[in-house]
Every structure is written in C-alpha cells, then in structure tokens.
Specification:
Blueprint lengths: L15 H4 L7 H16 L3 H12 L3 H16 L1 H12 L8 H16 L4 H15 L2 H14 L4 H8 L4 H9 L3 H12 L1 H4 L21 E2 L44 H10 L7 E4 L6 H8 L2 E2 L6 E3 L9 H4 L3 E3 L2 H12 L8 E4 L6 H12 L3 E6 L2 H10 L5 E5 L11 E7 L14 H4 L4 H19 E11 L8 H4 L5 E4 L18 E2 L2 H4 L5 E7 L1
Parallel strand pairs: 1-11, 6-7, 6-9, 7-8, 9-10
Antiparallel strand pairs: 2-4, 2-5, 3-4, 10-13, 11-13, 12-13
Helix pairs in contact: 2-3, 2-4, 2-6, 3-4, 4-6, 5-6, 5-8, 6-7, 6-8, 7-8, 10-11, 11-13, 16-17
Bound molecules: S-adenosylmethionine.
Length: about 525
C-alpha cells in the first residue's frame, strides 16, 4: 500500500476554505446524513427524502448538487464502504450504532470517492459525529477516519480482495454478490445460464428459456405508420455505438455468448452513475423538438418522444404541469412503443395496461391510442397507485380501474395488452441508490408466481391474434425468460424490429433486453407474444 495523505495535501474542493477547519457541519453534509439516517431507520427512499429536505432548508445550486452527490454516492457505495470501515475499525458495521455507521459511511465516502480534501472530510465528519452520536463515539469516528485516510481507494480494494471473481466484483462495484451473479447470468443469456437460480424452475413448464414457445417472425417487416421509424437523434451528441455518460463501451456483441468479464464490470459500473432525467413528449400534444426547446433539453438518443434534461427540477416545467409531457426513461418509452408497433390484423381499438401504476406507460400508450381511435384501460391493484394513474392520465381518454390484474375480467377482449410486471427493479438500480441493499434474492421467488399469473391473465384477456407485451425493469432471467416460458396458447413475436433500427446489441431475439451500459436506458426486458 502507498501512503495517500500527501496526495490530498492540496485541496481541489472549493468547500475546503469554508468548511475544512471549522467545527460546524455545513448544510450539504447535514442533509446527506439525514437522508442516510432516514434510509437506515425508516426504510425511506432517498430520491423522495432528499428533494424535500433541500426544498425545506432552501438549499440549491452547488450545495444541492454536493448534498446529492454525498447522499446518493454513499448509499450506492455502501458495500465497499462497509468493508473498508470494518477492516479499519476491526468491527462489523452491523455491530455499530446506526448513527455511527452512517456518519462513518459519509466520511469514508468523501475520503475515498470524492475530491474533498482528507482533513476537510475528517474534520466535518468528527463534528457531525459529535452532534449526532455524542463525544465518545466521535473519538472512535476520528480514529477510524484517520486509519482509512492512510490509503487510497485502490489500496483498500486490493487489500480487501479475496481473489474470488464475483466477490471481488461485488466489492469493487459495490453490489451484493447475488446481484453480480444474476447480472452475469443475464448477460450470458438464457441458453448459457439455464435456470437463473441454478436450480430447476418450479413453474412446471419444463425446461426454462424461451425455446419452448414457437417464435413467430414477422417477414413483412410491417410497422404501422404511427411508429416513429425516423428516430430523431442529436448526431453531435451521440453516435449509435457511443457509450452513455459514465458507462463503458461494451466489447463487441456478447448476446447469446458467455458474458465478457469487462462487460459485467460495465453493467455494474453503470448502476453507480446517476442517469439524466428524461421526459416523454406526449404524442399529439407536443413534439420532442418543441419540448427540448421549451426545456433547454436535448433530444433523446432512441425514442422519437424523448427529451433529456441537463439540469433542473422537471416538476417546475410548464409542459409537465399541464400534462403535455411526463418524466420517463427512454427504455420505458421504447417498450411501450414496441407494443404499439406490433403488427395486428383486424380490430385495433381496445388496449389494456394491466399493471399501470404510477402511469408513465399508460400516459404514452393513452396518447398513442387516442391518435389511432383506440381506447386504453389501465388496471392497477393498489388504490393509491391507481389514483396516481388517474392523475397522470387525467387529460387523456383513459379508463382507470382499481383491480387485481390476475382476476380482472371484462365483457370484451383486448387487442393490445401491456404487462409491465411488478419485479425486483434490478434494471433501474442507478435511479434508486439504496435499492440494491434492500432487495433479497429470495424476493425473486415471491415475484415469480405473481408475474406468471399476470402474464396468463393477459393472455386470457387478449383476443386471438392480439398481442401482449411482457415487460420488466429487470434483466434477471428468473423474471424474464423463465416467466415467458410459462406462457401457453401464444407465440413469441420477434420484438427486435419493433425497436429503433439504430439500437445496437439486440442479440438473436426474439426478446429484447436493454441495458444501461449498452443503450443508456434502464435494463428493460420486452417479450411480445401473440395469442394463437
Ligand atoms: C412495474 S410497476 C408498473 C409501472 C407502470 N407501467 C408505469 O410505467 O408507470 C408494476 C405495478 O403493478 C402493480 N401490481 C402489482 N400486483 C398487481 C396485480 N396483481 N394486479 C395489477 N397490478 C399489480 C404494482 O402496484 C405496480 O404499480
């Protein structure tokens, strides 16, 4: 190990002068600590708590950005931080008081992951410890901070490495090891990994993977006129194979092959970068170019309706307030557009979103349906989420129904059905800094039955010849291919032609798996099934 104290002698942190030697705790650090404490003690969501605290304390601009970096960064890096703290203190972090653990995580994050000067990180952390933990624990915090500050991040990670590949990746990229394994399996593809859990599927559907279903390849290449084939892109900003900000360029197309270790690193690293806020310009109400002009944003890479914001609170935008646009990741837009673009013969008037809350996809589908004289019904089981759907779609002709999608029935069948299934959400970890530590691998078993039943219900509700999109914001094979493999009375349609032609790395089909490190979107999975 090398001594890193000297590296930190000259601070590049503009806050150094203001906060470095003082015994007070500045607003951003105090707010970051409160976010960590709310997450630890109240199971709060950081992305809900932080904006409230910033607003309440009147913190904006650079201080708000610093508070965000500290709170989100510390939550994401918790796994690596806890390993360092345990090693430096000789005590498991779970054995420490919650306040001591969170103060130390915040302090060690500054030491190892930011350009804050070491003495500024140490002084402010000890001051914070005095305030929230008391004088004695502050001495312990001081000692741990000093010990950690002797070495660089790389040195700590080298010291803590075990030589076991998945465990070391989990340590370096700060993910639970089971998630690293599930991502490795998903990148390798269903045929390589078989059952994602390594155990036989209990679905009763025989061997897992999509091979069970007949694959219907649409040879006409038909795409309805309303599909945005001419995907607009800001050429100066992104070439088709450019890496999204913060992501690592994938090494070739690895679909259907053994996952490259480098690609697994890139997939995990992408979860440690905050994504830009993306908007969806509602078709027929505003176009993306106009929305980009009004919001000072830029056009999305793939969806003709996507606009990316550089900064600012989307809630302040007139187009959001008056319902001409909503906040939505481009990946979510693409899967909804794929359902709308799936070829159909015969009637195309009744659309259904079976798991609609909070209503992002219902808003996009509802706007598209209106332009085709179709009508969307949005079903959601949770009452408060059904209210959110009603609010999100209030200016659209959408029927919102509070019901269990597994048992929902109507007198007539539907032509297009979306099952955006409740899932682990592991494809959107970059948006939810604490989520990776909340989820347990056993959650997947609980979700499997619900996902299977919702897909079966969708196939009951769709008319023969109609289409169902089974979608998750998770790449985990147990929630994607294994669920699709349980479908009966339906054929898989090749979903790839329903996505923009420029989208790289779509693999061999028939399903589509998006990834943050490949496409800059959430890791959305999409299977399109046609009822026989
Ligand atoms: C992944 S979210 C859907 C996101 C939504 N499509 C959007 O774009 O905003 C899954 C939703 O399914 C709902 N859900 C869970 N179980 C359900 C059930 N049995 N029937 C209907 N909805 C259900 C959850 O409450 C949650 O709102």
């Amino acid at each position: 190990m090398t001594d890193r104290r000297h590296d930190r002698g000259a601070s590049r942190d503009p806050r150094h002068g203001r906060h470095g030697r003082s015994a007070t705790v500045d607003n951003p650090r105090r707010i970051a600590y409160e976010v960590l404490a709310a997450v630890s003690t109240q199971d709060a969501y950081a992305n809900l708590v932080l904006p409230k605290l910033l607003r309440h304390r009147g913190v904006s601009g650079r201080d708000a950005a610093f508070a965000t970096e500290l709170s989100y960064g510390t939550l994401r890096r918790r796994g690596s931080l806890d390993a360092v703290i345990a090693s430096a203190s000789g005590r498991a972090v779970s054995a420490l008081d919650q306040s001591v653990a969170d103060v130390l995580r915040l302090g060690v994050y500054q030491l190892l992951y930011t350009r804050v000067a070491a003495h500024a990180a140490a002084n402010t952390t000890v001051s914070l410890a005095r305030k929230v933990c008391g004088h004695r624990p502050a001495g312990f915090v001081n000692a741990v901070m000093r010990k950690v500050s002797r070495y660089s991040l790389e040195d700590w990670l080298d010291k803590l490495s075990t030589g076991e590949e998945l465990a070391d990746l989990a340590l370096r990229q700060s993910h639970p090891e089971w998630i690293v394994r599930r991502f490795a399996e998903a990148l390798a593809g269903p045929s390589e990994s078989g059952s994602a859990s390594g155990e036989p599927s209990d679905s009763g559907a025989g061997p897992t993977g999509p091979a069970e279903l007949r694959v219907e390849v649409d040879e006409t290449g038909f795409l309805p006129e309303t599909y945005p084939t001419a995907v607009r892109r800001d050429e100066s900003r992104a070439a088709a194979t450019d890496s999204p900000a913060g992501a690592v360029e994938p090494h070739g197309d690895t679909d259907g092959a053994e996952a490259e270790p480098d690609e697994l690193v890139a997939a995990l690293a992408a979860d440690n970068v905050s994504p830009a806020v993306q908007l969806c310009a509602r078709p027929g109400l505003i176009d993306a170019t106009e929305l980009a002009r009004q919001t000072d944003g830029s056009l999305g890479r793939w969806s003709a309706y996507a606009v990316e914001l550089d900064s600012g609170d989307p809630g302040d935008l007139a187009a959001i307030r008056d319902g001409r646009a909503h906040v939505q990741d481009e990946g979510s837009q693409l899967v909804a557009l794929a359902l709308a673009a799936a070829p159909l013969t015969g009637r195309d008037e009744r659309w259904l979103d079976l798991c609609a809350g909070p209503g992002g996809k219902a808003a996009l589908l509802g706007s598209l349906a209106a332009r085709r004289d179709a009508k969307l019904t949005a079903v959601e089981v949770a009452e408060h989420r059904a209210r959110l759907v009603a609010e999100t779609t209030k200016d659209l002709d959408v029927d919102v129904v509070t019901a269990d999608g597994r048992t929902y029935t109507t007198s007539d069948s539907f032509d297009r059905v979306l099952v955006d299934a409740p899932c682990s959400g592991l494809g959107a970890l970059r948006r939810r800094p604490e989520a990776r530590w909340r989820r347990a691998e056993s959650d997947l078993d609980g979700l499997r039955e619900l996902q299977t039943e919702l897909l079966a219900s969708a196939l009951r509700l769709v008319r023969p010849g109609g289409v169902v999109a089974y979608v998750t914001c998770s790449p985990v094979i147990a929630e994607t291919h294994e669920i699709v493999a349980t479908a009966t009375g339906a054929s898989l349609v090749d979903a790839r032609p329903l996505f923009p032609a420029e989208l790289p790395h779509l693999g061999d089909g028939p399903t589509v798996q998006l990834w943050p490190h490949r496409h800059g979107t959430d890791a959305m999975f999409c299977a399109i099934l046609r009822r026989d």
